[in-house]
Amino acid sequence: MSQQFDPYKALRQRINLRSVESFYKSTAPQDKIRDVILNFCSLRLNRCFYMKDLNRYVQMLLPNVAPDSPGRTLRSLKKKGILDYELMSRGNSIYKIKKVSRGTNL
Q1: How far apart are CA 58 and CA 67, in angstroms?
Q2: What is the per-residue pLDDT across 37-50, written as a single tens digit (0 to 9) for each?
């Protein structure tokens, strides 16, 4: 029986989830999701990713987030000009991050 590859195993081992939870304890849910998505996008600047990768990353750090929230938040951040991405394949949900801004307009 082969084991399924887990691309986030090393990340989970490096991150102390309790410290992440305590850091976000007093933060509004939409702010938590926004911060996690901005971090994900910063790590993937000028690279492609699947929407399912973003969803897994958010679920790993914020397990109680609704499945559609990361996509909605990603689109909202683009609309506000905080980040820019290109939809490379609608059918395969492949995106490419072009710009991430962490200014005061968050």
Answers
A1: 9
A2: 999 999 999 999 99
Contact 60, 8 (CB under 8 A): yes
Please indicate, yes or no, if residue 42 is contained in any of the structural domains. Answer: yes
Domain annotation covers residue 3: no
Q: Is residue 1 part of a domain?
A: no
**CATH code for the domain in which residue 81 is found:** 1.10.10.10
**Whose structure tokens read 């938590």?**
32
Tokens 């399924």 — which residue? Answer: 4
| Burial label, 37 (beta-carbon count in 10 A; 0-12, 13-18, 19+) | buried
In the chain, what percentage of residues exceed pLDDT 90?
A: 56
Counted residue by residue, the chain has a size of 106
Q: From CA 74, how far away is CA 98, in angstroms rounded? A: 13
Provide the 8-state DSSP code for 25.
T
